[in-house]
Write a structure and sequence with these properties.
Chain A: The chain crosses the membrane at residues 20-43, 97-115, 156-178, 198-223. Chain A: It is a multi-pass membrane protein. The complex is a heterotrimer of chains A (235), B (261) and C (243). With 235 residues, chain A is an all-alpha fold. Chain A contains 8 helices and no strands. Helix content of chain B is 37%, strand content 24%. Chain B has helices at residues 2-16, 53-65, 79-84, 99-102, 145-154, 166-175, 185-193, 211-214, 227-242, 245-253, and strands at 29-34, 37-38, 42-44, 50-51, 68-73, 90-91, 106-112, 116-121, 137-141, 159-163, 180-184, 201-208, 218-222. In chain B, the strands form 3 sheets. Chain B has a 5-stranded mixed sheet with strand order 5-1-6-13-7. A 5-stranded mixed sheet of chain B has the order 10-9-11-8-12, with helices on both faces. In chain B, strand 9, helix 5 and strand 10 form a beta-alpha-beta unit. Chain C is mainly α. The chains are: A mainly alpha (235), B alpha/beta (261), C mainly alpha (243). Chain B binds chain C through residues 77, 80-81, 100, 103-104, 142-143, 147-148, 151, 161-164, 168, 171-172, 174-177, and chain C through 87, 89-90, 96, 101, 105-107, 185, 187, 196-197, 200-203, 205.
Chain lengths: 235, 261, 243
């Protein structure tokens, strides 16, 4: 069993540097997906046909096409599209899509669709009376959003938000396919060089398990925090 | 809602602030894309650094060009998109100069040229012909010249199994999932057969060199618009061949001549 | 630029010929994708039903091992599970010389096992939720009839749970379909694999990957349509009980 845990010196590279990159990609994608999710939910509830149509097309498309296909499309095709389109619109500068950005864009774009559904569900669940009461008090739309809508939305969306985050975290493993040097990619190189794929992929599996466990703990803590004042709700 | 729009705009601006003017300045640093899964040309050590002949040769060329070079690791099938990204400015990944690739990128003059060969388990007795390869599983690295050669010549008789890296292919060859592999003869001999894992394997069949598939040797891959950089590499390669530093470095790694005229 | 030239350059941009030339590659890719999806779902279902029943048990030695299994498979990426099985298995001589090797040496088999084990964890969780929400009355009525535990599950609890689980299950079917695209990373030529070959050979990312996207889109719609029909049929059955 001794040979199983001998990482031949690749430990730091995978466990520290690789994990850091994985977490960076995950957090950046999360930020993008939350923004897209809020916009998507607003569009779906706007009552305007065009906006609703766009939002529905977006969520359907994402649900139906594998993330790997989207990622390969953007990585291999994104640059060609920009190089082709930019000069036609009088743009002579260079816009680069490096693997980090391709990964974040694709994962953020994908989970924006899932967040749209989460946020939409949460917004619908907020009692109308509260919003009307706030309006009656003369709250501006911004204040209403900050004081009434947002805090409740967070509480109501938290379970599905947490679920989305867990799936998102695991999806980051795909960035290794487009050459981003995350922990999966590093483990792959180490596996090739040492010819011990089982050892290194097992290390990455455990690494992910640690990250998801930490996430569960944080999400549970958040749920308790936002559930204050709702103690009657069964756990 | 305004808050959301403002945040969104800020993030988009951040995401797109990588918009930078085309590099017209003098080349002081050159980022070079290397593969890292292709010993002895390039492989990644435990400390994450890339080592190998191609890295050493890169350093030699950069000394001649009087620029600072930084190696960047990239999987082979993403080399060309990454060059155009631009994640780096030059490819030194044993990439052969072929017509299809020339439509995408420019190449320097060739800096080495070695034939392609099949590899199989010792005593497997496989004849390299459509009849002999019938029903065989042949491993190859995705989007290489060898991949194109197999697809054009043996796709109808043999099963072609494509890998992201040469090392993944060797893993499966040793595991017994493949009957044969196809690759650069020097890489197979020095990166596999001469190592402990490959000692039960041998190269079989003729040297494959047909330029229709195998191109005109290996060159430095460059963006088409970087004409100045191409000239720098061309000059530097010629200089290293002339002053003997190419041959000196070659001797450190190989017991044969890899330049191949 | 006006609309006409934009349209013309978009037409120039796409090279349909590449896809027409490679339609057979895509077609065989569709077969591989459907095969992987169906077989991994069946394997997952067979494993998930007993696991979900074990999960609702009160005895720790019954539910704990299954809980751990579900936790590990849901807590790690499928990609890693697949690599562990495919590349990892070859690391050990005793596996390479063992009786399972004729199966494990096939990428196809490894993909189905990895994906089946993975979806089993998700399906078990879906069924557990559905079993836990079985109306108490149904169970008590069945007990009053003197049903054995086996009959109670096969006649009452499971059929009623499957009905409630259907919407979540359809989602899992779609997720499974999408995750089969990972099979292209262990050398299989499914839809994504076909697209990667076309892309690396002709350097035509749009033609290659958009065609793949359209194929997945069509398959997903067919699944949703079939599921809709199934749901309606089950509801009819519910509305007009025959006994």
């Amino acid at each position: 069993m001794g040979s199983l845990i001998d990482l031949k010196g690749y430990g730091w590279s995978i466990l520290v540097e690789g994990t850091a990159l994985t977490v960076e990609v995950a957090l950046a994608s999360l930020a993008l997906s939350v923004i897209l999710g809020i916009l998507g939910a607003a569009a779906k509830l706007s009552g305007r046909r065009v906006l609703m149509g766009i939002a529905t097309f977006y969520t359907t498309l994402i649900r139906s096409v594998p993330d790997l296909v989207l990622m390969l499309l953007l990585f291999f095709g994104g640059q060609t599209l920009i190089n082709w389109a930019a000069p036609k619109f009088g743009y002579e500068d260079y816009i680069d899509i490096d693997p980090f950005m391709a990964g974040v864009l694709v994962i953020g774009f994908m989970f924006g669709a899932y967040m749209t559904e989460s946020f939409r569900g949460a917004l619908i669940a907020i009692p109308r009376g509260q919003i009307e009461a706030a309006r009656a008090y003369g709250m501006s739309p911004l204040l209403l959003f900050r004081r009434i809508t947002l805090p409740q939305m967070i509480r109501l969306a938290l379970p599905s938000f947490g679920n989305n985050w867990m799936v998102l975290l695991k999806t980051t493993a795909l960035v290794s396919v487009i050459g981003l040097d995350d922990m999966v990619h590093r483990a792959g190189s180490a596996a090739g060089a040492t010819r011990q794929p089982f050892t290194f992929y097992l290390v990455v599996a455990v690494d992910y398990l640690v990250l998801t466990t930490i996430s569960v703990l944080v999400l549970n803590w958040l749920a308790r925090r936002y559930d204050r004042g709702y103690a009657r709700r069964s756990p | 809602m305004k808050l959301v729009v403002a945040t969104c705009a800020a993030v988009l601006a951040l995401a797109l602030n990588t918009v930078s003017p085309l590099q017209a300045k003098e080349w002081k640093t050159v980022r070079v894309g290397l593969e890292g899964d292709y010993p002895p040309f390039s492989s990644v050590g435990p400390d994450g650094k890339i080592v190998g002949w191609e890295v050493d040769y890169m350093n030699l060329l950069c000394e001649h060009m009087k620029v600072k070079c930084t190696p960047v690791q990239q999987d082979f099938d993403g080399m060309i998109p990454a060059l155009q990204a631009p994640k780096f400015d030059a490819i030194m990944a044993s990439m052969s100069i072929t017509d299809v690739r020339k439509k995408q990128i420019a190449f320097s003059v060739s800096y080495y040229n070695t034939p392609t060969r099949f590899v199989a388990k010792k005593g497997a007795n496989i004849e390299i012909s459509p009849a002999g390869l019938k029903g065989k599983k042949i491993g190859v690295q995705r989007s290489t010249i060898q991949d194109n050669y197999l697809t054009d010549n043996y796709a109808s008789v043999a099963e072609i199994v494509r890998y992201g890296s040469q090392d993944d292919m060797f893993l499966d060859l040793v595991a017994g999932r493949l009957d044969l592999g196809l690759g650069d003869s020097l890489q197979i001999s020095d990166g596999f057969i001469k190592t402990d894992r490959g000692k039960d394997f041998e190269m079989i069949g003729p040297n494959l060199t047909d330029s229709k598939w195998f191109g005109d040797g290996v060159g430095v891959g460059l963006r088409k618009q970087d004409d100045d950089l191409k000239k720098m590499f061309d000059t530097a390669i010629a200089e290293t061949l002339k002053d003997g530093s190419y041959q000196a470095l070659e001797k450190k790694y190989f017991d044969i001549d890899i330049y191949g005229g | 630029m006006d609309g006409g030239t934009l349209q013309a350059s978009i037409l120039q941009f796409f090279d349909y010929q590449v896809i027409i030339d490679n339609w057979q590659l895509y077609l065989s890719g569709v077969f591989v994708t459907l095969q992987l999806t169906a077989l991994s779902l069946i394997l997952g279902f067979v494993l998930a039903v007993p696991m979900s029943i074990m999960l609702t048990s009160r005895k720790p030695w019954v539910w704990m091992p299954v809980w751990l299994y579900v936790y590990c498979f849901r807590g790690t990426p499928l990609l890693i599970q697949l690599f562990l099985l495919y590349y990892g298995a070859g690391q050990f001589a005793f596996i390479r010389e063992g009786f399972l090797w004729p199966f494990l040496r096939e990428a196809w088999f490894c993909a189905i096992i990895a994906m089946g084990l993975n979806t089993a964890a998700y399906q078990a969780e879906i069924f557990r939720g559905a079993i836990a929400t079985t109306p108490r009355g149904e169970i008590e009525a069945a007990r009053a009839f003197g049903m054995s535990p086996f009959r109670l599950y096969s006649r009452i609890i499971l059929p009623s749970s499957f009905r409630r689980a259907l919407p979540a299950y359809v989602n899992e079917v779609i997720f499974s379909l999408q995750s089969t695209s990972l099979a292209s990373l262990v050398t299989l030529i499914d839809i994504t694999g076909a697209a990667r070959i076309v892309n690396s050979r002709y350097y035509t990312p749009y033609e290659a990957f958009l065609s793949a996207a359209v194929l997945y889109l069509v398959i997903t719609f067919v699944i949703i349509w079939l599921a809709g029909g199934l749901e309606r049929r089950w509801n009819v059955h519910l509305a007009r009980p025959t006994s």
